[in-house]
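User: Let's play a game. I give you a shape written as tokens, and you guess the letters that built it. Ready? Here's round one.
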């Protein structure tokens, strides 16, 4: 097909919002839709190329796959190779294990499958995953492997009905996508059969105009461009029906631009600007490199500087760096491998190279998994390494699917043989205290029921303004928990959480979980600060109406580094110097100040763990023998058990029983 500069411009319009979205710029809250635009462009171009080659009698399936491999694989492999030493330097053991698994999946073009099982594109953790973007590359590769075969069969035996067949296939995929958006969003987002309709939409356009191009149309093309840009600005990650029926808007917009945005239209003039065309030319490399640059840049800022990992200035610098690396990748990897003679002289170089990469990746993954994330990169005493454990009755107590509707939605703490008189709820920070609470309740001779979800702020009337997951409905769980306490006649409710994360952020003001009184509120740090005291007051008021005074457990201090990084000085013989990196008591109090003020003003009954966790100057993260923490902010099981006497003492003042056992 003839070169169309506006399509390269459209590529730029697709990749820029994706990069800005991953960088956290709120103006492009729907920037992830750029991937959908890419899918449509890919479907259109691949079909146009195949149809033209078949019509001219020069199509070769082997040559087609070879050209695709030359176009995509070299830059992709270089990106993965560069990520390995960076991961070795920056990633902690658990992160390293996940990286190795994702690397293995990406090399075998199955990243989308692995992410559909254990990933969440919109989670906060995805920001620190350097390979989070490889899912879409796997989707395209899977499509490239299968669709050309289907198209060739149709062109040979069903040529007169080819448009109908591809259209029916597209509709079937779209229906699957719409259904999965409601039933199993993660699979609908990642898996190829639910995404294929977007590429097939481009295919139908290419088939439809193969014989006669559509005429230029100012209004149709401009409407298409507005639909795309409008999606970037107006679509929200919290719309859990994405991808699905709403995704038709940017997909249709892309079709209108490609179909009607020819020379002579304003859309063509806009998209053919040299700057956009140039970005479009390097768009593949830009997509490849932006996520590793952003992820490792955030990690470096968090570990080695006092810069907020999410600051606009840092993100802007990293975006510029990613574009500079993209140009180098395009100039010195993409172009030479696609147009040069190195791969053309010996057609076995590329498959042999990929075979070698696959073998090395498999060996690397085995090494990482068999050495627990190569934890010996961080020299720490064996007892410390063993103490960094977070799992305590997780399968029965925490992060259960459909907790808001399932029958076995709570677990029992303390004495199991008696009726529960205390009810506990919260987020992952409450779960991190579970071992200590369990011990305290046992010594108090009482029984308690617990329920919790990650990132679930245990305040009534408050919504987490993040992507809604129908399997982990925090708001519904809180309502159910309240009604359960009311029906049971319970008198004691304990609520624990990472309070600063919902009211202002953690260390460096990172880790903000935006909240609001309305699920449709825009994510905003200021909105969260305003909502938090409202949530505290609403919670106290509602529980007071049923005769319950809620007990809040304050947040343990955030630490600046992972425990293994904290213990580096100790392994180097620097003695007590390993505590120099602990957060100061002053910093901890300052981080908790917004939440603390809200608790004080509302008259909340607060158990503050600061006296337990801090001395006059610092808040130690452990001692020479074991770590109090699992990561930068969650207690380890050992750290939780260490809190048991403190929790026993404080709860005994508030929860009166006839069976008090001295701890």
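Assistant: Ready! My guess for every position:
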């Amino acid at each position: 097909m003839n070169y169309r500069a506006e399509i390269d411009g459209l590529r730029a319009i697709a990749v820029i919002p994706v990069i800005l979205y991953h960088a956290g710029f709120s103006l492009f809250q729907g920037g992830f839709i750029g991937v959908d635009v890419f899918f449509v462009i890919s479907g259109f171009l691949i079909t146009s190329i195949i149809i033209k080659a078949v019509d001219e009698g020069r199509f070769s399936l082997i040559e087609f796959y070879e050209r695709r491999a030359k176009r995509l694989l070299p830059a992709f492999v270089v990106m993965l190779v560069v990520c390995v030493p960076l991961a070795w330097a920056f990633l902690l053991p658990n992160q390293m294990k996940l990286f190795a698994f994702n690397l293995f999946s990406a090399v075998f073009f199955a990243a989308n499958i692995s992410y559909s099982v254990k990933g969440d594109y919109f989670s906060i953790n995805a920001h620190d995953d350097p390979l989070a973007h490889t899912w879409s590359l796997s989707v395209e590769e899977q499509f490239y492997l299968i669709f050309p075969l289907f198209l060739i069969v149709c062109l040979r035996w069903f040529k007169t009905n080819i448009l109908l067949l591809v259209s029916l296939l597209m509709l079937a995929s779209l229906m699957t996508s719409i259904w999965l958006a409601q039933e199993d969003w993660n699979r609908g987002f990642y898996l190829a059969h639910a995404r294929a309709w977007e590429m097939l939409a481009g295919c139908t356009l290419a088939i439809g105009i193969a014989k006669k191009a559509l005429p230029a149309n100012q209004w149709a093309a401009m409407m298409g461009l507005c639909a795309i840009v409008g999606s970037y600005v107006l679509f929200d990650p919290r719309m859990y029906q994405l991808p699905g029926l709403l995704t038709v808007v940017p997909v249709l917009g892309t079709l209108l631009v490609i179909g009607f945005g020819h020379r002579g239209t304003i859309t063509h003039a806009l998209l053919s600007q040299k700057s956009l065309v140039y970005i479009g030319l390097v768009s593949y490399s830009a997509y490849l490199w932006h996520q590793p640059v952003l992820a490792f840049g955030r990690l470096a800022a968090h570990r080695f500087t006092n810069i907020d990992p999410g600051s606009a200035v840092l993100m802007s610098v990293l975006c510029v760096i990613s574009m500079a690396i993209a140009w180098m990748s395009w100039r010195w990897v993409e172009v030479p491998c696609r147009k040069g003679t190195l791969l053309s002289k010996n057609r076995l170089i590329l498959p042999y190279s990929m075979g070698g990469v696959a073998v090395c990746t498999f060996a690397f993954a085995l090494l990482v998994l068999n050495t627990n994330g190569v934890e010996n990169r961080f020299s720490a005493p064996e007892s410390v390494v063993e103490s960094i454990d977070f799992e305590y009755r997780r399968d029965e107590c925490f992060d259960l699917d459909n907790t808001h509707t399932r029958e076995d939605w709570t677990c029992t703490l303390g004495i199991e043989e008696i009726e529960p008189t205390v009810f506990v709820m919260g987020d992952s920070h409450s779960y991190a205290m579970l071992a200590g609470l369990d011990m305290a309740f046992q010594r108090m001779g009482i029984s308690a029921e617990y329920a919790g979800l990650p990132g679930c702020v245990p305040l009534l009337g408050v919504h987490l303004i993040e992507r809604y997951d129908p399997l982990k409905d925090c708001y519904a769980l809180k309502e159910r928990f309240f009604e359960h306490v009311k029906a049971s006649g319970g008198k004691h409710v304990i609520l624990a959480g990472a309070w600063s994360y919902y009211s202002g952020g953690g260390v460096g003001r990172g880790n903000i979980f935006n909240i609001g009184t309305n699920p449709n509120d825009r994510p905003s740090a200021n909105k969260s600060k305003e909502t938090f005291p409202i949530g505290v007051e609403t919670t106290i008021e509602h529980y007071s109406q049923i005769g319950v005074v809620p007990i809040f457990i304050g947040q343990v201090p955030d630490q600046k580094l992972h425990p293994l990084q904290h213990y580096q000085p100790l392994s180097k013989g620097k003695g007590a110097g390993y505590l120099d990196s602990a957060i100061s008591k002053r910093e901890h109090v300052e981080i908790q100040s917004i939440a603390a003020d809200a608790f004080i003003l509302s008259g909340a009954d607060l158990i503050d763990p600061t006296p337990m966790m801090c001395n006059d100057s610092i808040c130690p993260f452990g001692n020479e023998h074991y770590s109090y923490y699992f990561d930068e902010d969650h207690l380890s099981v050992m750290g939780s058990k260490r809190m048991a006497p403190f929790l026993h003492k404080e709860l005994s003042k508030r929860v009166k029983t006839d069976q008090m056992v001295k701890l």
